[in-house]
Design brief:
By secondary structure, this protein is of the alpha+beta class. It has a domain of 396 residues. Helix content is 25%, strand content 21%. It contains 15 helices and 17 strands. The strands form 2 sheets. It has a 15-stranded mixed β-sheet that branches. A two-stranded antiparallel sheet has the order 1-2.
Amino acid sequence: MAESTKPHFYLPKIFDNEGGWGPATNVIPNQFRDIPYAPYSKGDKLGRVADWTNPDGQKQDNREVTGRQGRTGFNRFNRDQHQAYGASFASAFAFTHNEDESSFSVVDNRSAIAKKMAIKASGGARSRPQNNKANNQGGGYRTVNQRPQNNRQQHQQQQQGGGRRRYGYKDYDKPQRVRNASINIGADWKVLDEIEFNRMGKLSFGIPEAVDIASYGAVNYYNKAYDRVNTKNEKMLQNIERVKYDTTTSEDPIIQQFIKDDKATVFASDTVLSLLMCATRTVYPWDIVVKKVGNKVILDKRPGGVFDFVTVNENTFDPPAENEKETINSWSSLCTEATYINNNFARQVVDQAKLSFENPNPFASEETKNQLASCGYRYREFDLTSKADAAAAEGSEEEANKVSMIVRTEVDAAIKNGNQTTLMTVRALNEFDPAAQGAGGALSWKKSLDSARGAVVATEMKNNAAKLARWAVQAMLAGSDQLKLGYVARMNPKDNTRHVVLGTQAYKPKDFASQMNLSLNNGWGIVKAVVDMCLQLPEGVYVLMKDPNRPMLRIYAVPGEEDLDAYEEDDEEEEEEEEEDEESQK
């Protein structure tokens, strides 16, 4: 074979692009230069060359299709077609930087299922009512899957039940309110310990027996005519001016004498001790002042603090608003109203006859001794010595490990049962507006108290679990045989100045506590743990505070002998200055 007919193999010429990647610029033809690189996907399909099925200007799906959409746009005739090669990537090279970044956008890449779940969680999903009859049962209650069929039915339900609703799917995801602490924490305060509520719920201690030490004051007898009050025979709540002393523990002259005589190790009042025993049920912030003097521990309250007011619907799903100062259904206004109702109800349901205790009222003066409210003070001792401490002290002559507590308790009235006289604790529940925020799904008392009192009490136990538990504990600490509850409502839901008594109900404190699943062993276990912790602290002033936004307790060491009331007065002065500034601006 001749050499000219032999096949030849020539290596292609390699162009090395030292300045970047891709083909070198010197080998690209002139007509293809300055064209940006547009990648394409293998899934791209060629569109139709011409679409004669949808001419320009024709309406499809009640929408006018423009000329551009008629050829290559998306419609129901060519929805399975795509644009030309690389058309979906052309927008990547069209980005232009602007200072306002108007070309930036966020893409929602959630799946369709996630979007539907988000809509349901926000309350936007609707479903059919299953039964018209079920919508009207129970005074306006309806199940999660039921909605009113029309405006008339919805109006009827709002009239019957205040327009409330039952909470369902993912309502627990509602953002928690951010509350302020009950006292301003100083910059130099030091956190000594933190105790979470779930740990406190596991504590337990045997219920100690109470030993009466002394009793002071006098109580009036209960007027049994109020047991016959009902919604058809209501009584107006009267404003009765009387003086009642609720002095803090360290300023009590009787307790001061007990401290000098070394009668006990720990001293407290029933208001402070009951709050500590029911701490795991509380939601609102509070604080207790702990004073360590020698080997003595004193549990105090601050004047004007949370102990001087009665809370309303603290444990409901959506508590009353806290930032609206001028509304009658705000948190502060409701607490003031509930405190006013409790004070006047206890003074109204008693007669003129009195039962005097061993000693006169220790807080009364010559000016106020004839204007005292019905109140008796019983000083009782509780032994908090554990079995381990008692076993360690058996072999020694000294009782160094013995821990005893003296508590000042209060009773409000006395009642005669035949020849026997028993003591009573009197409290009042109040209804404000079933349709307002924070009502907690409460029934209208004027319509349901006589016919469905069990449902009313169950709702109050749910919405006011902390308050009712404290009342039951206070009654048991004082040795009361009865806990008398009154039901007081507004005459007009829009007026918080006039109230009526709709009924009363008596409970045995232990039975009432068992209905609420209140564990006294757990309450005394919390007290025992706090007392043991405080006994190990050096002398000084400490603050035991409930975190305003988390279920836990913190104990702070207050340096020096600071006036804790000043931390509260600063807030009041700032609020007054802000109000003056607003008035001056107006």
